[in-house]
Every structure is written in structure tokens, then in C-alpha cells.
Design brief:
The protein is of the alpha+beta class. The chain has 15 helices and 40 strands.
């Protein structure tokens, strides 16, 4: 390893951390506080970690001596926590804090408790869960133990309650060894396997004031995980929707299957009745078998599906399961904590009669990003595809953007590169993706590419995964005009590009994963080198922003070199055997990345469309990257109608095929899987971005980041009657809708204040369109037409445009 490079990289790395940690997010918030835990050892043998280790309950009585002006709780944990005040849950946040590398940074939350406190004695309660800080030693895929890669330890928390009185006095309640703890009823909890709840371990009124804690133990002060504590600047995980089951069946005696009607990630609450010794088992799955029994296999953790695979103490099959042990005359609602499942179906065992539909409520969980944008059309199939995509996207937002929310739950960079713009098309992702960038900052090293952030030990996919660190920064710049982040991380970005050069000195990327889940092989030399090329272009733009002319020239030269490498190997070299690879991904990648010379784009487009027609049923056979590329490449080159005919089809392979076969979330593969592959995977969700970009026609202008100027170019497929689309920019909402009316099409546009739209729609000077701005007609001149298109600059306002359909 180059020691000088490592030193420079480390200095730049540390510098970026210090810039991102503002004064308000420093450890000073917790001055006087200590990390506390139950003092359990974390060095027991692997097999014993699967036994019962009750989640500890912590409590602290404190006095309120006057009129409270404001009471603020600051709290975070290594692991998960649930906080209560006088037995009432604090806030509406779940699975907090967000998953990070706890040895490097930890986010805390802030809660206003002013109206939860009363004069006299009050009680703060905290329950700790394991989260990703104390995972089980499951050997995922038979060999990967998260404990070998993650920063781990016994769950702990740190908190401060600040009481501000009306008379100006201030008091603080802090975490130290004056807190007391006892084991609670959650006797097992794991993010993959689920929880075990023993009602016999319940301690009534434990978090109410003046509870007798004589038998409780003193909390242990610990060092904590070591990461810098920062204020959470992104949305927390919340219950964003409640879901009612649609039916309950009984495929076997005393086995009941609740069908929630849709696949989602989250939790549930269930009303149970029973006696001491009654045990209710709940298992979860995305599918059922033909005989109506539960199929949990697409959600099994790390493909642990036979005895011995998961290591000492691990279950033979690592499915999702919650267990509730009841006590005398139990009749009440129960809900798990410190885990999350992915499911459409719940198998319930341990009851002698079926629960009522009203006894079960699904609780969809996700990082509560604003779903500010909207797309709908006159095609019922397109709307179902959009709904399934949104459901998939939200299920994979549990503090990281995951590849699947059940069997892996990891923040893979390849999936981010494939669908981050689709997420941005639907949600306000600015702060979430900023958090993701910092996760990558903490995960990366200077010697090898890693695949996920937080890092979980996987590092074989290469540049196409780790480059998410760079491309997210560009998208935050392009869509939100986040220049500050570019400036903050520029030194690390430069060092990252130097690392790429060291790993691939000749420019051609020769290691890593290619077009994952393509129906035909795709060499990494194509997709990996294409990502390197795009990274060079991004860095050239960042260098321009920084007025770093030396680096502008350097990255411009690199861009030219990489483009020529791709041209020579994949376009001009007749000896290259393209017959063994997916030609759809080949030509789509070259077109999407602007590798093909302008005079040869038509030939490349024709080659791409020929490859599509030769594909399975004339559909796309592309994978994680090629699908995004092919949607865009064909549309950019005049084949929007052809793309629409594939997207709006129920034929295999395609999104409509998934919907036609009962999918309510997107599959990991084009082909249906009932065992190996996830049924809730965002990888093919790039189709939603296409809806906004080409049917709604809303696209950013790279020269004017943050939508100060933007492209407005909706397309009108022959067999689609209408589209409604709205997109929230930093300046306000863009709205783009159209509807066919006999021989005409009527467009409705809203251009927000402070922006300008570059409109392009099919129209002819022979049949002059009518353009209305805020109820006043706008004159259209002959120079507003170019060939068969109306091209006009639209200033802020509401527009109605009526044109004759191009096929009349």
C-alpha cells in the first residue's frame, strides 16, 4: 500500500468529517452525560447468543419543581431504543437511531416533552434493542458473519433531558449510574429473525413515577461505541401507513394465514387472548404455496435454509418469526419492537380459533421521506406498476436504501446507482441521500472497493457499487443545487479518483460485477468502465465548480481516454465477440454514456432496437444498470412509443408480467421466484423515473442545477389517453399533464416562480396551437417551430396548450 497516499486520503477523510459536523451536532449536546448499559459481557460463544437475553428496561425518576417552559429530550443509542415518559411512548419514531458505523458517527434525536410532564415526580423509561450493533452471528450464505465487519457491542444509550422553567432556571436529567435497570419481556430481538416476547416477564408500571425499584440493579457506565454524536438531519423511521388484512384462511388445523393484500416492510399489531403457557408463533412471508400454506423462503436471512449453514446455534432455516408467550387471562394488543419484517402473509399458530380481521393491523415502516411527487395515467397497468414501485421503494428505506428489506437489508451501492433518480422522481431525498453519502464516507477505505454502506464485509462488486458515493453527490447537486456538499467532499472525491486509477491503471475496469440479473452475460469491462467514464465527467464538473483548472484538464483527458477505450473494445473492434453477451446492455450503455460519435448514433440506435426485437418476446433482457440505460437511450433517440409498448405489456419479461402474476412489489429478477430471490427489490424501479422523464416530460437541465431551468418534453403514446404528473423542485411544483380530446391534445403546465421551462412538443405551424397563460392567450410565432415541434421558453405561470395530434 502507498503509505503517502493513505496519509493524504486519511487527512482528507478527517477533514470532511469535521466540516460536516456543525456546532449544533457536536458532543457538547451530551456534556455531563455517560453512556450506560446493563453491563452484560459481549464475548459469549456464538451458540449462546441465540439463547434468551432479555432487552433491559432502564428507569429514572426525577422531579419537576415548577412551571415548565420547555422540556427537551436528547437521546441516542448503540442499537435501538424505545423511550417513555410516565409510561407514554416518546415520539412516533421506530428503529432509532438510524443504522450507521457506530464507531464513526451516531445520530441523535430530539423530542419536545413539555406537555408530557407534570409537577412532582416523573419517570423516564428506556428499553434497549440490539439492532445492527449487536447482531446474531448468523453465517449468511454459510460464511458471512456481520459481527466480523460491523462495529458491535452490548447495546447502550446516552440521553439528556433539559428542563427550562418559566422563572429562567434550568435543570438537567442525564444518564449515569443513578439509573436502574431490570430484564424486560422482550427476551429475544434480532433485525432478521424477529422477537420473542414473554408476558410473564412483564413488570407492571415499571416506567411510572415512584415505582419500587429496590430489586433493580444499578446501570453500568460504559465507554460507548466511539462514533461522533451528531443531530439527525434527515427524517426518522415512522409508521407511514396502517394496512388491514383482506382475508384469513386456514390451510391446516389450527394454522391461520392472514393475507394483508399487499407486500410491505414493517410491523403489525395483533390482539391475542390466552392463558399462562399459551404460546403464539407468527411467521412471515411474501408468498403462499398452492395449498395455501405459508412460503417464507424468499425472505430467509442470507439463504440460511438447511441445518448447519448458519453456524453454531443458528436456526436450520432463518425465517422471520415472532413468538408471544402469554400469561393468565391475557387479552390485549401486542406489537413487536426492535425488528422489522417483509411480508404479505402472516402464519399464526397457537390459536384454536381464527382471529377476526379486526384483530390484525399491518404497520408499514419506512424513513419518512416526503412523497411529494405524483404520476398517474389512463393506463391501469402503468398505475399498478407505479404503485408497486413506490411500495417497493418505501419498503427499502429503513434508514438505508436497501436491496431487499428481509434477507439482506444492506445499503448496496449498485442499487443506488440504478434507481436513485427514480427515488428522487417520487420523494424528497435530499437529506436521506446526504446521510447515505456520509455512510459511504465512513465505509470506504483507500485500497479496495466496498459494496455497501454501512460496510458489512462485502467487497467484490467493484466500482459500479462504490461509485454511488460520487454519483449521489452529483444528483444532490443536479436536483437540489447542493453545491455545499460538493465543496465539502471535493478533497476526498479527488483522492477517490486516484484510488480508482491505482486499482485500474490502464482505465479498463477488469474486475467486479457487471449487469447483475441480466438475462444474458455482460462483462464488467463494459459497465464498470462506463461508470468510471461517468465518474470522470462528474469530477470534471466538480473541478469546474471548485475553479480547479488543473483537475479540469486532468479529468477531461481521462474522460477522452475512457471513451476511446470503450469505443475501441465495444464498438469498433469487429473481433470482439459480442454474440456471447447481452447486446441490449451493450448498445444501451454506449448510447446512454454518450460514447457513440454523433454521426453513428442512428446506427447504434438501430442496433439496439434490433437487439430488443431479438430478445425474449421482443422485450428487455437487461439487468440492474442496462434497464435504466435502455429506457433512456431508446427514448432519447425517438423510440418513446416503442418503449411504452414494452412497459405497458403483461408479457414476460417485464413489469407488467410481474403485476399480472400477482406482484404488489417488484421482483429481484424478471423471472418469478418462489424460493431464492426477493419479491421486494428496487432494482428494476427505474421505470418510474421514465414515467416522469418521458411521459410527464419533466427533466433537469444539467447547466442549471436545482431546476432553475428545466426541460419540459412530454410524449404522447398512441394508445395512452392521458397523464398527470407533478414534481416538487426547490422553487415549487412543476406540473405537467395532458389529455387527448378527439383530434387534439390539451396540455396543462405549471412553471414555478423563479424558474424557466424549455418546452418541446409535437406541433405544426400549419395547425397553430393555442397557448393560454394565466387565462391570457400567448402569441405563437413562426420561429417558435422547429420541423414538427413547438419549442418555446415558458416563464412562471399556469399554461393550457391545445395542439392537433401528430397522427391526424
Amino acid at each position: 500500500m502507498n503509505k503517502v497516499f493513505l496519509l493524504i486520503f486519511s487527512i482528507a477523510f478527517a477533514g470532511c468529517q469535521s466540516v460536516s459536523e456543525k456546532a449544533e451536532t457536536s458532543d457538547a449536546t451530551f456534556k455531563g452525560c455517560h453512556w450506560i448499559s446493563n453491563g452484560n459481557e459481549n464475548t459469549i460463544p456464538d451458540s449462546l447468543m441465540y439463547e434468551e437475553h432479555p432487552a433491559p428496561l432502564f428507569r429514572k425518576d426525577f422531579e419537576v419543581s415548577g412551571n415548565i417552559k420547555k422540556a427537551t429530550l436528547y437521546i441516542t443509542a448503540a442499537g435501538y431504543y424505545k423511550a417513555t415518559v410516565n409510561s407514554r411512548r416518546v415520539g412516533d419514531v421506530y428503529l432509532d437511531p438510524a443504522w450507521t458505523d457506530f464507531s464513526k458517527r451516531i445520530y441523535y434525536s430530539e423530542y419536545d416533552l413539555t406537555h408530557m410532564l407534570g409537577k412532582g415526580t416523573n419517570c423516564l423509561g428506556v428499553i434497549l434493542g440490539n439492532g445492527f450493533y449487536n447482531p446474531l452471528p448468523l453465517r449468511m450464505w454459510g460464511n458471512r458473519n456481520l459481527r466480523d465487519a460491523l462495529s458491535t457491542g452490548n447495546p447502550a444509550f446516552i440521553a439528556k433531558l433539559v428542563l427550562e422553567y418559566s422563572n429562567g432556571n434550568t435543570e438537567e436529567v442525564v444518564t449515569n449510574n443513578s439509573w436502574k435497570f431490570a430484564p424486560g419481556p422482550v427476551v429475544k430481538n434480532n433485525v432478521y429473525l424477529g422477537i420473542t416476547y414473554d408476558a410473564l416477564n412483564e413488570i407492571p408500571d415499571w416506567d411510572l413515577p415512584e415505582f419500587s425499584e429496590d430489586s433493580w440493579q444499578e446501570a453500568t457506565v460504559v465507554e460507548g461505541p466511539g462514533g461522533k454524536i451528531q443531530a439527525r438531519f434527515f427524517p426518522p423511521i415512522r409508521v407511514t401507513r396502517q394496512i388491514k388484512p383482506v382475508k384469513i384462511t386456514s390451510p391446516e388445523k389450527n394454522v391461520f394465514i392472514a393475507d394483508m393484500g399487499e407486500n410491505f416492510a414493517g410491523l403489525y399489531k395483533i390482539r391475542l387472548k390466552g392463558e399462562r403457557g399459551d404460546t403464539v408463533h407468527l411467521r412471515f412471508g411474501e408468498r403462499i404455496y398452492e395449498d395455501g400454506t405459508l412460503n417464507p423462503m424468499t425472505t430467509v436471512c442470507g439463504q440460511i435454509k438447511r441445518k448447519g449453514t448458519g453456524g453454531p446455534g443458528a436456526p436450520d432455516v432463518a425465517w422471520q418469526e415472532d413468538i408471544f408467550r402469554l400469561k393468565d387471562d391475557f387479552d390485549g394488543w401486542l406489537a413487536p419492537e426492535f425488528t422489522f419484517h417483509t411480508f404479505r402473509y402472516i402464519e399464526i399458530k397457537g390459536l384454536t380459533s381464527p382471529p377476526d380481521l379486526s384483530d390484525i393491523v399491518g404497520l408499514a415502516l419506512n424513513t419518512d421521506v416526503e412523497q411529494c411527487n405524483h404520476f398517474e395515467s389512463s393506463s391501469a397497468l402503468l398505475n399498478k406498476i407505479q404503485d408497486a414501485t413506490l411500495r417497493t421503494f418505501k419498503a427499502n428505506l429503513i434508514s438505508v436504501q436497501s436491496d431487499c428489506p428481509a434477507r439482506e437489508k444492506f445499503g448496496y451501492g449498485g442499487d443506488i446507482n440504478a434507481v436513485s433518480e427514480s427515488y428522487i422522481s417520487n420523494f424528497d431525498m435530499q437529506t436521506f441521500y446526504r446521510k447515505a453519502v456520509y455512510d459511504w464516507l465512513d465505509a470506504m477505505n483507500d485500497s479496495v472497493f466496498v459494496d455497501t454502506a454501512p460496510f458489512v464485509g462485502i467487497q467484490y462488486c467493484g466500482i459500479s457499487w462504490e461509485s454511488a458515493f460520487l454519483f449521489l453527490q452529483y444528483q444532490l447537486y443536479l436536483y437540489y443545487n447542493d453545491v455545499d456538499l460538493v465543496k465539502e467532499l471535493y478533497p476526498v472525491n479527488v483522492k477517490w479518483m486516484e484510488k480508482v486509477h491505482r486499482l485500474h491503471p490502464d482505465g479498463m475496469v477488469d474486475s467486479g460485477l457487471g449487469d447483475h440479473e441480466s438475462l444474458q452475460p455482460v462483462p464488467v469491462e463494459l459497465t464498470g468502465t462506463a461508470h468510471y467514464l461517468m465518474a470522470a465527467r462528474v469530477m470534471k464538473k466538480f473541478a469546474e465548480i471548485m475553479d480547479d483548472n488543473v483537475q479540469v484538464e486532468k479529468f477531461s483527458a481521462l474522460e477522452t481516454k475512457l471513451r476511446e477505450l470503450l469505443l475501441e473494445k465495444f464498438w469498433y473492434n469487429a473481433e470482439y465477440d459480442a454474440g456471447k453477451m447481452n447486446k441490449q446492455t451493450l448498445f444501451a450503455t454506449l448510447l446512454y454514456c454518450n460514447v457513440i460519435p454523433n454521426e453513428e448514433v442512428a446506427v447504434a440506435t438501430d442496433s439496439l432496437w434490433t437487439a430488443v426485437k431479438k430478445g425474449v418476446n421482443g422485450h428487455f433482457t437487461t439487468g440492474i444498470f442496462g434497464t435504466k440505460y435502455i429506457l433512456e437511450a431508446l427514448s432519447q433517440n425517438g423510440l418513446v412509443d416503442s418503449v411504452f409498448s414494452i412497459v405497458n405489456s403483461a408479457t414476460y419479461p417485464g413489469w407488467g408480467h410481474m403485476i399480472d402474476n400477482g406482484a404488489t412489489t417488484l421482483w429481484e429478477t424478471w423471472k418469478e421466484s418462489d424460493n431464492v430471490y426477493s419479491n421486494c427489490h428496487p432494482m428494476f424501479g427505474c421505470v418510474s423515473e421514465w414515467f416522469y422523464r418521458w411521459l410527464g416530460g419533466i427533466r433537469p437541465d444539467a447547466k442549471n442545477p436545482g431546476f432553475k431551468q428545466f426541460i419540459l418534453e412530454p410524449h404522447i403514446p398512441q394508445i395512452l389517453d392521458s397523464v398527470k404528473c407533478e414534481y416538487k423542485t426547490p422553487s415549487g411544483y412543476i406540473r405537467s399533464g395532458w389529455k387527448k380530446n378527439g383530434e387534439t391534445v390539451v396540455y396543462n403546465f405549471t412553471i414555478p416562480d423563479g424558474t424557466q421551462a424549455h418546452l418541446k412538443v409535437p406541433a405544426s405551424a400549419v395547425n397553430v396551437p393555442v397557448l393560454i397563460l394565466n387565462n391570457q392567450e400567448v402569441k405563437i410565432n413562426s420561429d417558435d417551430f422547429e420541423k414538427d415541434y413547438l419549442k418555446k421558453e415558458l416563464m412562471p405561470g399556469n399554461y393550457i396548450l391545445t395542439t392537433k395530434l401528430s397522427n391526424y
